[in-house]
């Protein structure tokens, strides 16, 4: 979820997801949104089984041992219901901080950060002299409580090296903004390759799909809401990822240009429905089930991370109204009643 609703409402959404048996509540760790760590700490005592974690947190703006301190504290607060999804970060956000990540070997930085995090979480102390992070006798009293430790998963989009690396060193991979069979055949193959290269069990890994999702009894209304939201994500998608959806990045350059110039209405009008159909998971519950069963599940996806979007979020981003789409809690109930049963 994007924690952009009033915080009391965010907590009620998480409580509803918990009561309905959803696996986890994730939120992105970005300055653009309200702070997920404070939100999840507040929601922890209001829930019983749902897991919590950043999806994603990052290793340019966040220091790995401080992520560990936060996660271990949250793990104790939730009674062991946490996991981390970590990546290099949103390059658009980094540019706003005037951080030049080019030439800084972001994947190497991420690999080293994961090593640091595993060490610090398991031992509570670290002495390390790496290329990106250095420590001398650093320790913490913040210790995770869950059996086996806190899972550390990787967020990835472009590949191929990031997908392969996730198989080698992480407890899974969540690929963001991918919706096609081609995209997941590609990423799953590399995830498997990395796992086998490292002598690990590919089947034990979390192979997740982070997807913009709108579910409604009114299929066209759901697709319109998704179209508006996805237009804002286009600039985050690498050309290689768009190509795996049959889209040339140059086709969407006018959308990105309009958004960059602050003309939201023009950007949405230029983002034609057939693009949105390829780059979202939207429609009736039955249409959502069909899409997952046709394109994602056969390619090895075993975890759906639904970035549900509702009229309030659409209004916040675009100023536009989208009637006939339930709020987030209503969509959670639709997913629980008519999507989840299709997958056992």
From TrEMBL:
<dbReference type="GO" id="GO:0016705">
    <property type="term" value="F:oxidoreductase activity, acting on paired donors, with incorporation or reduction of molecular oxygen"/>
</dbReference>
<dbReference type="InterPro" id="IPR050564">
    <property type="entry name" value="F420-G6PD/mer"/>
</dbReference>
<keyword id="KW-0560">Oxidoreductase</keyword>
<protein>
    <submittedName>
        <fullName>LLM class flavin-dependent oxidoreductase</fullName>
    </submittedName>
</protein>
<dbReference type="InterPro" id="IPR011251">
    <property type="entry name" value="Luciferase-like_dom"/>
</dbReference>
<dbReference type="Pfam" id="PF00296">
    <property type="entry name" value="Bac_luciferase"/>
</dbReference>
<feature type="domain" description="Luciferase-like">
    <location>
        <begin position="6"/>
        <end position="303"/>
    </location>
</feature>
<dbReference type="InterPro" id="IPR036661">
    <property type="entry name" value="Luciferase-like_sf"/>
</dbReference>
